[in-house]
Amino acid sequence: MSNEGLCGNRQKHVPACPSNLKKRRLIWIVVASSVISVIALASAIVFMLMRRRGKTVNAEDEWLPEVAPQRISYYELQRATQGFDGNTLLGSGSFGSVYKGTLADGMIVVVKVFNVQMEGTFQTFDRECEILRNLRHRNLTKIISSCCNLDFKALILEYMPNESLDKLLYSRDYCLNIMQRLNIMVDVASALEYLHHGYSVPVIHCDLKPSNVLLDNDMVGHLSDFGIAKLLTKEESIAHTTTFATIGYIAPEYGLEGLVSKTSDVYSYDIMLLEVFTKKKPNDEMFTGDLNLRSCVHNSLPDELHQIIDTDLLTLDEQNLSQKLQCLTSIMELAMNCTANIPGERMNMTDVVAALKKIKQQLSSYY
Fold first, then answer.
1. Active-site residue list
2. The Protein kinase domain covers which part of the protein (predicted)?
3. Predicted TM-score (pTM) of this structure
């Protein structure tokens, strides 16, 4: 009987069995391919997770644009501002001039041209570039790009249609109501809280005043102008400066000794808070000798506040007048606690933000 499948030893006159080498090789190939496929799939999953994680940002900042990596040329800015024409000029000062411009893609921007003849311009430009490029908060002015040559330096910033808090506060054609003013000051306080406590190192603005608060289309406040700002190290709580800000807003230790800190910013912020609700500038000619904006407000508390606040805020026949006056009193008392002569007695910006938001919630319930 024949058996074609029989195999074994050749000496016994049967054909040799086929080798298992090819079978083992095939198994190894299948196993190796499977392992490689699993590793590749795992790598792809890890990559996607890392990429997604890298894109995750704070909800507050999710809409903020990244700073453009490329610089804009001088000739582009010249075209955008119609040759830096006077009709596009928004304002000027010792630092330089600010123009409104339209880029080639139609984007409306602010072009801040630095006065290169002024001493310290290069340091001011570099400092503002460094700070604005690294900070990300919805209530800070956003830098779009820059232009830097040997004899020309400019920052290209986001355009704010409603210009500055200073212009609107003292405008004859428009009056900011209580809620608008409080919302704007909460915005500025939130920006300061981020600068002091939310960034990797404390940033001291050093020049807080209404003209450095810009307003967008929705009346959201954006803190601007970091030309004399100071970056502290993690070990530092105070710094010395020889550059002085606007008289009337600076803290006593800043004016007398050139010492700046988070508490000096708190002082300046709350002087601005007083100004916004009284519509009186702290450097007004009416304040002489020992009389100043803070002392005027302090003397009016708690029963004579109506004599010092902006007359456009409330009317005698206003609904919930006493409750609204009480909210204004709370705002003024908060400002008193933040403008103490001794820096250590002032509140920090985290507590200021919390207090203002509580007052805002209460005030909004009366409208």
1. 207
2. 84-367
3. 0.78
